Amino acid sequence: MRTIRIFAAAATCLTAASLFAQGAVPASGKDVLAQMRAKYAGEWYKSLTFSQTTTLRQRDGRDTVQTWYETLRYTPEHGAQLRIDVAPLSAGNASLSTWDSTWVLRADTLAAARAGGNPFLALIEGVYLQTVERTIPQLAPLGFDLMKLRSAEWQGQAVWIVGATDPADTTSAQFWVESKHLMVVRIVLAAGGRAPLDIRLGALAPCGKGWLATKVEMMQGGQRRQLEEYHDWKCDTSFDPQLFNPGAGKTAKHWAR
Question: What are the pLDDT digits (tens) for 164-204?
């Protein structure tokens, strides 16, 4: 019995080592974030543009398809920022987001500004370019328990799951990081009494010296609510910085025009 236990313990250690070959085996979600930051320190892209085919499931069960143009950038002053323009660009309908704020444009005019932004920006961009101490507060609105961590396999890849320790826990807020590229490939979020929102990020493609998930599926209650498919992405590209000025109006030159 003692021999079996020793063998099992050794196998566990070897598995953990292979899962996280890039660095020390993490003890917490904070350690995972630190590994993500360290792997691409000084190399991750600071800007990104792409067009997106967005399939939205309506309440009546029908799908509608839209084209979105997305612009992402990171600056030390503002952190990660995302602009989404909905086709046609001539309509001037867009949104600007940081992790904690959102500005809505209608006909190229600021229509609304509100607290509450896009905290996913910390996981797809900010984590690679800023300190862990800056990233953690930006993740707080999503409710991840960074002290909970387990290893698993997802679609043939070893992953670390931050926010859950029980394999049967499919509803707690959690994010899954695959160990090869140290990219988030799945996010599970509570949805206010409804079935959890299950976000799956796949089709990883090289982007500058980093990576980009070019297909995102949002599932809820076993149904796909939204599908995002990226096209023509460009990393570390230049564009008019006025695109992130909510008051710039039509003077901001869009790269997709």
Answer: 999 999 999 999 999 999 999 999 998 778 899 999 999 99
**3-class secondary-structure state, position 194:** strand
pTM of the full structure: 0.89
CA distances from 164 to 9, 18, 140, 151 (A): 22, 21, 15, 10
Rounded to an integer, what distance in angstroms lies between the CA atom of residue 148 and that of residue 30?
Answer: 10
C-alpha 198: how far from chain center: 12
SS3 state of residue 17: helix
Q: Domains along the chain?
A: 2-251 (2.50.20.10)
- Go through 43-80 and write b for each residue having 16 or more CB atoms within 10 A of its CB, e for each that does not: ebbbbbbbbbebeebeeeeeeeeeebbbbbbbeeeebb
- Supply φ then ψ for residue 59, to 5 degrees: -60, -25
